[in-house]
Design brief:
There is one protein chain. The chain is an all-alpha fold. The chain has one domain (3-209): Serine Threonine Protein Phosphatase 5, Tetratricopeptide repeat (Alpha Horseshoe). It has nine helices and two strands. It has helices spanning 6-22, 24-34, 39-56, 62-76, 81-96, 104-122, 132-148, 152-169, 193-209; strands at 3-5, 101-103. The protein has a two-stranded antiparallel ribbon with strand order 1-2. It binds adenosine-5'-diphosphate (ADP) and magnesium ion (2 copies). Adenosine-5'-diphosphate (ADP) is lined by residues 31, 35-36, 38-39, 42, 79-81, 84, 118, 122-124, 130-132, 177-179, 192-195.
Length: 211
């Protein structure tokens, strides 16, 4: 598929809600090792509110969908992940604008703006052991795939593969941002919870787009 519609983007967010809900214990476990054990509940509550709101009043355009999702996350999640994912979605919305679908370069540009929002808010750099360490390589892989093919599913698969590698690589890192950074050396040896939930975001995109 060469384009993704507002309905499919809505399915993406819904599938992400389903995955964080299915994996709530795993996300909680990761955050109990190097944080305050609330990443699972933060993501489940936040994405639950997002999906509830979308279903109550379905979005007509990409910017409406993602601005709504971003605002809901910022207001419903107290932890760091609320404003970070919230800004990610808000920037996707403002960059995509009032369209009813996106092609592969359009989605790539929107996602990249989303990453820019995460960095503007959290100041994370590569290797800080955060969601950046999944988002950044995943979007690099997405962009590289889009350069050679207009097929969104191919790009999503490439992004998800890079996301899993990025997630697993956070295990060896020392946290330099967020709560986990308070642990210093003791943060080494655990996967970052936000990196794990961000990998689920790309899994959800793959599942939404299909083969
Ligand atoms: P809190 O740490 O406030 O309890 P969560 O547990 O929901 O919030 O989310 C923690 C995740 O947020 C971390 O695992 C990390 O991936 C991400 N994170 C924290 N601080 C930053 C930051 N400055 N930049 C990017 N991501 C961050
Ligand atoms: Mg936490
Ligand atoms: Mg917290």
């Amino acid at each position: 598929n060469d384009t993704i519609t507002v309905d499919q983007l809505t399915d993406w967010l819904t599938r992400f809600r389903d995955l964080v809900t299915e994996q709530v214990s795993y996300l909680t476990e990761l955050d109990s090792a190097i944080g305050d054990a609330d990443h699972g509940s933060n993501m489940t509550r936040g994405m639950g509110a997002v999906v509830e709101k979308i279903h109550a009043s379905p979005a007509g355009t990409v910017d409406e969908l993602f601005k709504g999702a971003g605002m809901t996350l910022v207001t419903s999640v107290g932890g760091a992940s609320g404003p970070l994912y919230g800004t990610f979605f808000l920037r996707i919305g403002t960059t995509a604008g009032p369209r009813t679908s996106l092609d592969a370069p359009g989605l790539a540009a929107a996602l990249r703006a989303g990453l820019g929002g995460v960095v503007a808010r959290g100041k994370a750099e590569a290797g800080d052991k955060t969601m950046f360490d999944v988002l950044s390589p995943a979007l690099a892989a997405f962009d590289a795939a889009v350069d050679v093919s207009s097929d969104l599913s191919t790009a999503a698969h490439a992004a998800y593969f890079a996301a899993q590698t990025g997630r697993d690589a956070t295990r060896a890192l020392l946290a330099r941002k967020g709560r986990a950074s308070y642990l210093g050396e003791r943060s080494i040896g655990h996967i970052d919870p936000g990196a794990a939930s961000t990998a689920l975001l790309f899994q959800a995109l793959v599942e939404t787009l299909g083969e």
